[in-house]
Design a protein that fits this description.
mainly alpha; 0% strand; elongated
Length: 159
Amino acid sequence: MTQKVGLTLLSIWVGAAAFFSFVLAPAAFSVLPNQHLAGQVVSRTLGVVEIAGILVTAILLVLSFLSRGRRGKAFPFDLGALAVILLTMIGSRIVSGRMHVLRLQAGERLYSLPASDPLRSAFDQLHQFSVGLMSMAMIVALVLIIRMLLGKSGLPANT
């Protein structure tokens, strides 16, 4: 049962992260009347996806730890779950936080600033870093899903 729960939770999160990345964010920037509003929607939604990723992988770590018992040996699965947590926390707490500060400093003019503007350049670099962190977290999560499907997660098998 534990493996089935873990697989379900992680699959839902990867699906949500993929939907955010490939559907919601591009749609917001293409249909909302200005980029400032789109940025607010995307920022708010990304925060929810990031928190969900942290919670889901934390639950997986707890399940893995509890199922491991006294063996005490960390499985590669545990390290992968920890990597997803760290990547997502860095993106959520550090990178998104800095982007929010820059967004507040620039206000609605952020997206109209030239790429050479130091504020816009800093924002764009943080955005690229954020995309990279989320991409890495999603890839690691997909590897964890594959490990669960192959029965190599260390979690108790489905019953």
